[in-house]
Amino acid sequence: xxxxxxxxxxxxxxxxxxxxxxxxxxxxxxxxxxxxxxxxxxxxxxxxxxxxxxxxxxxxxxxxxxxxxxxxxxxxxxxxxxxxxxxxxxxxxxxxxxxxxxxxxxxxxxxxxxxxxxxxxxxxxxxxxxxxxxxxxxxxxxxxxxxxxxxxxxxxxxxxxxxxxxxxxxxxxxxxxxxxxxxxxxxxxxxxxxxxxxxxxxxxxxxxxxxxxxxxxxxxxxxxxxxxxxxxxxxxxxxxxxxxxxxxxxxxxxxxxxxxxxxxxxxxxxxxxx
Length: 274
Ligand code: SAM
Prior knowledge:
single chain, alpha/beta, Rossmann fold, Helicase, Ruva Protein, domain 3, seven-stranded mixed sheet, 12 helices, 9 strands, 40% helix
């Protein structure tokens, strides 16, 4: 018999560790809602037919909601050894194949660890959410969908439109590889302990045609240069890559434009023509 989430946290003496970005969701209404919204946005009734991977399950609120949505298997990757015993208790209560990995998610190639078709889900540790997301976006074709919670400001950078102050490298990479929709925004008091910031859950669905790894790395090089000096005109920010500047002229991108004026498709076109 499983204890409630709060009783589980008490039993294991799980005090949140700030260094691990731990802000727990102990309200099952919220974790169920995240899974429900993700499934309904994907027009599916459950995770059946998919292998799900959860990053940072912590005390397991979201994990319980995922298990109730009947995935073909669940893999959890958690850095905090204290949470592994909690995962073992969940594993003992389910018939769903359940793999527990005690490690740093940044060091795993999930396309090798998890069988396809894959879904990723996580209330992400905020301190490593951007490097984790960047890695997954570079392999976006490996996932059927990713349901991920970020601090609101990061979610705004991911979804920002062209010419907006939040528009930058992450917006271009995310919007070239995935369709991104906002599922839910949560205030601090939904978490234990309450963080200072609001949080946003986003659903990423890979685009049918994703740029190749070679083109994406050119896009990344272009956006690093252009947004590295975002107030400067391209003729200045791309100066160290003359071929890129020549290509701008050849395809009608003005050298007096600034980084934030170019939509993701323009960066893609530029990368493809260099
Ligand atoms: N999923 C739980 C919830 O919603 O209550 C916990 C979410 S908490 C924001 C982030 C979790 O990620 C913590 O359990 C933390 O220990 C774990 N974590 C932090 N850094 C990690 C890393 N590099 N790899 C795997 N897990 C990590």
